[in-house]
Amino acid sequence: MASKRPLTSFRLLSFDIYGTLIDWERGIIEGLKPLVARLPDSHALKSDPIALGSALNRLERHYQVENPKQTYDLILKASYEALAKELQAFPSPADGEDPLSLLDKEGTAFGAKIGDWPAFPDTVEAMRKLKKRYKLVPVTNVDRSSFQRTLHGPLGGVHEGLKDGETFFDAVYTAQDIGSYKPDPRNFDYLLSHIKSEFGVEKEEILHVAQSLFHDHEPAKKFGMHSAWIARGEGGETGMGGKVAEYLEGENPKVAFGWRFSSLGELAEAIEKEAEKGA
Q1: pTM for the whole thing?
Q2: Do 77 and 112 belong together in one domain?
Q3: Which DSSP string do the residues of 169-214 spell out, in sequence order?
């Protein structure tokens, strides 16, 4: 799927954030610890973080389709509680408190942690390099408030050196703005139409940068977008983006990304090398 087109020929990079810039899986696994601690040691999900992330993501997708206008923190809350019920991993009653009431509190705390999920180690430096060359526009499956906490928390380093009043991202399109969650086509319609109206940038001038084959690369192919796969995880396999083989195999694969990198840092480095050759 390698592309011969120069990476430096694009004017704008659109991004997935959680899974690509932010370590979604690490944040999820950390947040699920209270629930996992209640599972028996023999349970398969106790020692398999990818399967655990996949189990949560399956429920998350269900609630995103069922309640597309609900904010992401509430989607996560519902997913956490549904997973606990599915696994029969309820909190132990304390001082006569109802286990479902305790679960409600745990679910709320889980959803409130989005802004604490860590950035990948390469993210901030890579994004600062990319800022020098492109317009940068995330299209993310979270709500505005959660994204702002991420932007000024784990991604705070991207603001170093910016002038007063200057923002790092040129625009931010959230699921809350759009009223649906990726991979819904409405999210990519919104992305393309707004980039054209706000920046005068056509689809052919956009490179979509993302980890998730399910949320991003499959719809990117359907829309005829150029895309680069940031294959986080072992062989690109995570609990979020779907089984890699299901998307890459066959005569007509579900995805058609033109570039593959194991990190955002690798992408930024490839672009810098390309630019140096062309200088």
Answers
A1: 0.92
A2: yes
A3: SS--EEHHHHTS-TTSHHHHHHHHHHHHHHH---GGGEEEEES-II
Q: Is the distance from CB of 32 to CB of 157 less than 8 angstroms? A: no
The answer to whether the beta carbons of residues 148 and 27 sit under 8 Å apart is: no
Closest CA to 28 of 4, 49, 7, 42: 49
Listed residues 116, 142, 176: the one ending a domain: 116
In terms of Cβ atoms closer than 10 Å to its own Cβ (0-12, 13-18, 19+), residue 93 is: exposed
Contact criterion met (CB below 8 Å) for 30 and 116: no
Q: How many domains does the chain have?
A: 2
Measure the CA angle with vertex 62, ends 58 and 67; round to 5°: 145
Question: Quick one: DSSP state of residue 119?
Answer: B
Instruction: Give the rounded percent of residues in the chain with a pLDDT score beyond 70.
Output: 95
Residues, the chain? 279
**Tokens matching residue 275:** 């630019």
String of DSSP letters for 224-244: T-EEEEE--SBTTB-SSS--H
Q: Where residue 165 falls among pLDDT bands split at 50, 70, 90?
A: confident
Which amino acids are annotated catalytic? 16
Tokens of residue 141, six digits: 């499956």
Task: Report residue 274 as tokens.
Answer: 């390309």
Residue with tokens 């072992």: 234
